[in-house]
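Why should sequence recovery work at all? Because a backbone constrains its sequence more than one might expect. Tight turns favour small or flexible residues, buried strands favour hydrophobic ones, and helices have their own preferences. The token representation captures these environments compactly. In the example below, the structure is given first.
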């Protein structure tokens, strides 16, 4: 039977990246003692008030169809949040989606097509290859350099731009490196994008998990208002990935143009999830601060121990739920290291799941209790000693 080209384009973007994680789950199900540091699943539950709001909303009959943009109260809550960052944002600047992932997919489908180039810092989040190539566009990697703290520079970006370039897919705070771009760095990047008439799609899902200092975003710069789309969700900020509740905030014209696509894909979101999300965004909940403290403390624990191991160089993150380390000094690539470490009772992601420029790296999740971090460090130390 005939299948559309999109199935071919996406055929190699999925499963293989998660093989170690899947193997880890299979081994654990069979009783193996493995510390799982693979995916970024928050280790604390959502605030119980979110369940309560959802429950009450369902009981109140909020279980019908919504509309393509999102429930009015949620659109207002998102607009209010973003207008504190850049005055003038209103509900017409917002589209709701089930998570950042869908928002990214729809945004890329709306902005790019066959032949278009999408610039992205490499390493990059594992699903970006699919997000970029689904529309027929191609990825143009911009190397993120260890010596620059894995932060994208305006010069490296500009050098990678071609006449086909349409979009910069920007992720700060960054997964997997935990790098956070400063306002000054973003200003320079913004100038480059304006000069070359590029969209900036800013994936800000880790916005609330910056350990120290302020968060900066290209969205906040009024000069870039016509070319920035910010996408985010409550997955990380409220430890609620399973609720699947996110959004895209961009120019009015962008939202109007994308609406038919959103309607075609979704036929609206769930009103009771929208009510809960509006509550989450307008309440002062302790979830993000708690996660920030835990992840910062665990990142320091990992950095201290891994930094003492021969051949291992950890890069402490500025934000997020992961830490990366270069393991090439052990004589093993990230992939070999990760597979062999699995035998030693610790599951981590190989850097190769995050781009062409990450083969020497492993990524460790910070979402296990401190005791498990300490035990994982001991196992990693023993394994490195044995190489
Ligand atoms: C950088 C980045 N973007 C997007 C996502 C997906 O987020 P959501 O749950 O909102 O779809 C993740 C999840 O890990 C992520 O790390």
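From this structural description, the recovered sequence reads:
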């Amino acid at each position: 039977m005939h299948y559309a080209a999109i199935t071919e384009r996406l055929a190699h973007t999925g499963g293989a990246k998660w093989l170690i994680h899947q193997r880890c789950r299979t081994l654990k199900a069979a009783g193996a003692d493995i510390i799982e540091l693979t995916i970024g699943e928050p280790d604390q539950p959502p605030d119980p008030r979110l369940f309560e709001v959802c429950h009450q909303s369902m009981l109140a009959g909020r279980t019908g169809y919504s509309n393509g943009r999102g429930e009015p109260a949620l659109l207002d809550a998102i607009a209010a949040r973003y207008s504190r960052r850049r005055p003038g944002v209103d509900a017409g600047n917002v589209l709701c989606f089930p998570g950042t992932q869908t928002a990214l997919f729809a945004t890329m489908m709306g902005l790019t097509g066959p032949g278009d180039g999408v610039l992205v810092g490499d390493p990059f989040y594992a699903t970006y290859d699919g997000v970029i190539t689904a529309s027929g566009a191609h990825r143009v990697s911009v190397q993120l350099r260890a010596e620059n703290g894995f932060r994208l520079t305006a010069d490296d970006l500009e050098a990678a731009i071609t006449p086909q370039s349409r979009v910069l897919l920007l992720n700060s705070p960054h997964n997997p490196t935990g790098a956070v771009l400063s306002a000054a760095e973003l200003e320079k990047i913004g100038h480059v994008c304006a000069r070359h008439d590029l969209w900036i799609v800013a994936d800000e899902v880790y916005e609330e998990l910056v350990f120290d200092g302020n968060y900066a975003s290209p969205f906040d710069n009024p000069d870039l208002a016509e070319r920035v789309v910010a996408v985010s969700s409550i997955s990380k900020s409220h430890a609620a990935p399973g609720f699947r509740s996110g959004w895209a905030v961009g120019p009015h014209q962008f939202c109007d143009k994308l609406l038919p696509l959103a309607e075609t894909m979704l036929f609206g979101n769930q009103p009771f999830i929208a009510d809960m999300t509006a509550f989450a965004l307008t309440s002062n909940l302790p979830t993000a601060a708690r996660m920030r403290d835990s992840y910062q403390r665990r990142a320091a624990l990992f950095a201290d121990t891994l930094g003492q191991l021969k051949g291992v160089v950890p890069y402490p993150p500025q934000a997020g739920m992961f830490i990366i380390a270069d393991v090439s000094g052990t004589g093993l690539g990230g992939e070999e290291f990760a597979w062999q470490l699995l035998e030693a009772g610790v599951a981590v992601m190989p850097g190769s799941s995050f781009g062409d420029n990450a083969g020497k790296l492993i990524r460790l999740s910070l979402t296990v209790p401190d005791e498990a971090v300490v035990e994982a460090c001991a196992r990693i130390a023993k394994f490195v000693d044995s190489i």
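A few observations help interpret the result. Residues 40, 99-101, 125, 171, 175, 203, 205, 233, 235, 241, 246 surround pyridoxal-5'-phosphate (CB under 6 Å).
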